[in-house]
Amino acid sequence: MTDMLRRSIGKFRESYVSKTRKADELEDDANFIARDNVSDAGSEKSPEDPEKLHPHATIRRTPSTAERLHARLKAVADRARSPLRHPHMPEPKDTMEMFAEQNRQMHGEKESAGGAGDDAKSDGTATPTATLDKGKGKEIVSESPTILSPAQRNANLPDLSVTIPKPSTDIKFGEASLPASEVSALLFRAQQEIGVRTVKFTLLGEYEHCFTGEEFVVWLKMNVKELQGILDFAEEAAVALTEEYGALRRIGELGNKFENSPTAFYQFRPKAFNLKSVLQKASQDSVPTDTVTPSPISASIKRSNTMVNYLVKAVQSATAPGPPEDPPHVKARNAARAADVEYRKAVRQLDEHRCRVEERIDDTLKALQRWEMDRLKAVQTVLQQYQEIVASLHNPISASDERASLLTMSFIPENDLKALIEGYRTGPFRPDPKIYESITHETDSSFGIDLRKWAGEGAFGPMRSIDSMDQLNATAPRDLPPVLTGALQALRRAYGKLPSDEERRKSWIYEVPLVAVHQLRSSVNSVPFDMPIDDAIFDNHDPPVIASLVKLWLLELNPPITLWDGWEDVKKLYPAVGADVDDGAEDRDQHFEEELKNILIKLPIVGLKVLDLLVSHLKE
């Protein structure tokens, strides 16, 4: 479960980083284009006034794009409604002519009958004359009064009927290709011959008629001749039957991916034994059954109406009032913010899950230790009682009885338990928190941080020129982490309520349940990173819990306070607990000071500040 959450955290972070970079690039492009537009606007000239160009011209409003499209679509719709129009039927007016006529009606203008007027004959009958265009006459060609019939369409039209091929029922799996009925019979035979069994999964229950992926691949290799006895061909066939045709179902895992493994379990689906009907049903759903020969006229009308409806909807959506659409860089930034929120939420969930797992492991190990101690003490009690009963009897085996009593007295349960733990230990408690790593701002966690990054650039340089605490305080880049200073101040307030220094010392050595420490850690971590921590959060807990929180904060630092390369030097410098130390060796003290100085020189400034604060607190 933890590994799955860690992989999902990696995916969330990759999505967050990629979307943030895309948003940054689009914003840079938008800013660049905006600067170019500003520079171009300064060099452009304003268009000249049309009244200055034509003083006597009448200014009329020109049609907008939406109005021209609407008029054109109306004309197309009229043609689509009457495809068999008579040849002498007047054509629909052009878009500009329709708009000009509407414009003339609005302004009250009267359209003249001719360019220079009509010429009247002496007999009173009017004859049409050519319309003059700037002094030039234009001949009017009269149309023939003969009524024409519609043009005959070509009767030899191509056959538009579609012949649908009959779908194939063969199944290709790997290098083999067999009819669906034979594949179903093959799978039924596999169910009979493979040793199916009942498998039990945690939280899911029991599943019957299960087999492993390795068993299925081996069976295909031995029983399908088309696979030529090659293991790779058999594995490809199993993958095709499982993932493409869905004949097998995986048990205990998400998805239906096939694996050639003895730990991957599968079941035959019911449709595996009737693949022919499944394929026929799929082909009937995807291919129409009837063959239709469309009429050319109806097809033309249908296409025209479809295009008209599409363009009308496009114009209406373009001209309809509505909220303006965001530019691409704004959309990308919103997507990056959403990915940031998802990534932050996933990191918090992973951290909570890790704390719950650590608490469960801690409780389990402590319970096992308590049970083992009770068992060893019970064995010691039984041996002592047996020895007392044997010693009260008068028998000739007194010598062996004395040796047995010595062995019973040398049996100490605490030492045996310690030896058992040291023999089976795997390492010290080392929590590994997963923190939120942002590109645009600092982390929002107080635990698992890197002190050098938290303190800024001044914390990365080694301490080679500082000889006193005054210089250290003067060169400190920032204040210390608020979780450390707040916890130590809360301990100082709690020390006043304790009766003696011995009780204050015990606050640091008490064994505190990890559940209580994690509760206080969660309360502190919920405070925004740049805000001070309220004293009431610490005052509601006992001093041992606050001291354990300080130790947990030091354990979760990444890297540790002495850095990874300085940890081994510190272990060599300080002897183990209980080791023999020569107190009268002055040379050893001088050597100790030199080695300690060399170690402290390598530490960053913020590390020295934290060590100074902790040592001063313990000394006081």
UniProtKB/TrEMBL annotation:
Superkingdom of origin: Eukaryota
Cross-referenced SUPFAM superfamilies: BAR/IMD domain-like, GTPase activation domain, GAP
PANTHER family linked: PROLINE-SERINE-THREONINE PHOSPHATASE INTERACTING PROTEIN 1, RHO-GTPASE-ACTIVATING PROTEIN RGD2
PROSITE patterns membership: RHOGAP
GO cellular component: cytoplasm; division septum; plasma membrane
Annotated stretches, region: Disordered: 18-67, 104-142
Name of the protein in question: Rho-GAP domain-containing protein
Spans through the membrane: none
Every Rho-GAP domain range: 467-620
Composition-biased stretches (Basic and acidic residues): 42-54, 104-122
